[in-house]
Task: inverse folding
């Protein structure tokens, strides 16, 4: 992976406490001393059987699940572990990324949980588990894991994802509050774009569609084909325009999103009725000589 709790369980009843309670068999007088032998009905327990919970089976790791393919910063975090454990955790994280790419969310969860059992104090591991819960739509679990990862790392890069989780929990106002915190100013360009997309989504959740359009207009118009987030940003802008009833402009921006979506991150081409193999768009506005004053290419309205 190169980047990027419900309880509901009752505790034991009073009569279920170990070694006591109303349901326990009567013990003879000779058994009541601390050092007395165990009664025939209650054999002496072997403490070795309760010393630790049974190990949860881990999903197998293929030979090519090499931690060397992980992001450099994540590999650095794993150096706090023993060599053997780091290799195992790294292998599970590689498999998390592969499973997410294949949208096999059950397998991704199995590997993420295995990594977390081995290295629960490593921020990147908790982040991976949080991302899996996020992709599964398990918002409360995602929030808990991502908050833990943020606390362990001290980094703010998870702020956009945390804000989007708040949307998933039906709290768009909380998402907007997170976006307005001083920590948001510490984000890099990629994270700021992701946060802008989340903010626009939160505005849409609240029925503030014109505000969503306004929030994305400038970054979308300044986006360039070379920016890895361009397709997602343009798509989000198109969706905001569509929700605001600006259908003609929305179609234009879906086309602009499809033009730069080489990885198929969006379904812009499908929305426009074109298959991936036949989609050809040439808007003629992604040349280097049309760069904006700050060095980024400006996308002009046609």
Result:
């Amino acid at each position: 992976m190169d980047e990027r709790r419900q309880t509901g369980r009752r505790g034991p009843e009073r009569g279920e406490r170990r070694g006591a309670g109303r349901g326990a068999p009567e013990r003879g007088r000779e058994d009541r001393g601390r050092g007395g032998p165990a009664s025939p009905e209650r054999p002496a327990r072997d403490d070795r059987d309760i010393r630790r919970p049974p190990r949860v089976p881990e999903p197998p790791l293929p030979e090519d699940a090499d931690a060397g393919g992980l992001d450099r910063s994540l590999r650095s975090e794993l150096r706090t572990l023993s060599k053997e454990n780091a290799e195992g955790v790294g292998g599970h994280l590689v498999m998390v990324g592969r499973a997410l790419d294949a949208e096999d969310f059950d397998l991704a969860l199995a590997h993420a949980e295995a990594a977390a059992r081995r290295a629960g104090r490593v921020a990147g591991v908790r982040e991976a588990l949080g991302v899996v819960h996020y992709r599964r739509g398990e918002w409360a679990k995602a929030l808990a894991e991502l908050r833990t990862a943020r606390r362990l790392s001290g980094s703010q890069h998870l702020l956009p994802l945390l804000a989007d989780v708040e949307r998933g929990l039906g709290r768009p106002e909380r998402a907007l509050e997170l976006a307005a915190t001083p920590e948001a100013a510490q984000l890099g360009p990629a994270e700021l774009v992701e946060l802008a997309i989340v903010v626009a989504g939160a505005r849409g959740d609240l029925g503030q569609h014109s505000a969503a359009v306004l929030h994305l207009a400038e970054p979308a118009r300044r986006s360039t084909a070379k920016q890895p987030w361009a397709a997602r940003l343009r798509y989000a802008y198109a969706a905001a325009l569509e929700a605001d009833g600006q259908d003609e402009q929305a179609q234009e921006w879906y086309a602009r999103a499809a033009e730069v979506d080489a990885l198929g991150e969006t379904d812009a081409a499908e929305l426009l009725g074109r298959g991936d193999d036949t989609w050809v768009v040439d808007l003629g506005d992604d040349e280097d000589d049309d760069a904006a004053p700050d060095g980024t290419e400006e996308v002009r309205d046609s």
